[in-house]
Amino acid sequence: MSADSPLRVGLLGLGTVGQGVLRVLAQNGDEIERRLGRRVVVTHAAMRDIKARRDCDLSNVTICASAAEVVAADVDVVAELIGGMQPAQQLVLAAIARGKPVVTANKALIAEHGNEIFAAAQAKNVFVGFEAAVAGGIPIIKAVREGLSANRIDSLAGIINGTSNYILTQMSRRGITFGEALAEAQKLGYAEADPSFDVEGVDAAHKLTILASLAFGTKLRFAAVATEGISKVLPQDIQLAQELGYRIKSLAIAKHAQNERGDTVELRVHPTLVPAEHLLAKTDGALNAIRVHGNAVGQTVFVGRGAGGDATASAVIADLIDAARWLAAPAQAVPYLGFGSGALKEARALSFDEIESAYYLRLRVADESGVLRAITSILADLEISIEAILQKEPGENEDATLAIITSQIPESRCSRALEKLGELPFVRAGLSRLRVEHFE
Ligand code: HSE
Q1: 3-state secondary structure string, 235-257?
Q2: CATH assignment of 7-139+309-343, given 3.30.750.24, 3.40.50.720, 3.40.190.10, 3.30.300.160?
Q3: Mean pLDDT across the stretch 220-241?
């Protein structure tokens, strides 16, 4: 292989993203060559279903009988685009063992086994790129790892699951139910094979695990992410939040602090009220957006397509280009997570009970006098101040609905308030609580 011979890529998987890689290389091959100084060509590929119709030109690609054959073939870089845990993990480790650079779009693999993969890669001094694992086409990994490397990053918050965002957007625009919107998202191909990964926050938790490590220089710890899904958000919550000046988004939030509690991180994914004027609130449909706050740069927001063949291929190919540059100058590698492995910290992850937040509370109450006074006195006794309150006029013989936005309080105190409110005789079952994020 000479420095100006084509970079030979072996693709593991020819699904949505693999086909996107071939299409984008066909469309932009000359421009990519002009940037890199050599062509990038897919020479080998393996796929599960050989007969499936594919929207890309495979005429110059050797189709191998197995993914392991691609890893063993005469390729310079292996791109793992299969997803899931096995055989993806074995294949990535096999490529590393052969000293071949690896590019992967596999968020679950990096979030759950990245520590071992990076250790194996470091031992062999092998490049591993994973830009496509988070937020599809948005180059957020490079941005956090390299573009913002002068900063102490204290927090990030993102819409990093397009399916949830699509569902909440459609519920908000058209007043349809969660189930109806999910069925549409599946039809459009946004959802994971198991859509509970999307709507219960697992997919976003994988991506958040990676982003938090890059931002704070902490080891990957998927198990530390606290998640709540969006399936319990009602159209009524969306409506009330709008009237209070907020939008409901499924946010993945990471915060880092060093204080009397030591070195701590908050890693959480949950439906969140976001001020309507913030860019994240305006990120609709299947788009992704990530807000990163650094102490030198201030707030930065990255918006774009978080899924889809061509958008994700954009990130995969950027990694292939980096892999080619690494092959030419391996000594100049950027550490996998932006911090050398010896510099990665262990920080204690806070549970939901230990965090502080502002809250949205929704209560259905009997339409009687004294109700508001009893509710506000419970909140006052717990030193919870009310930032906003909205009462919906009940119809005849109906209950009234109250929506309250609280001040910033410990979650444990909010839970105590909900218990106390639930004991009031005129408060109906089904109290609802959502967290509010103000990005101060
Ligand atoms: N199911 C994911 C999403 C696809 O909805 O964002 C991209 O990871």
Answers
A1: HHHHHHHHHCCEEEEEEEEEEEE
A2: 3.40.50.720
A3: 94
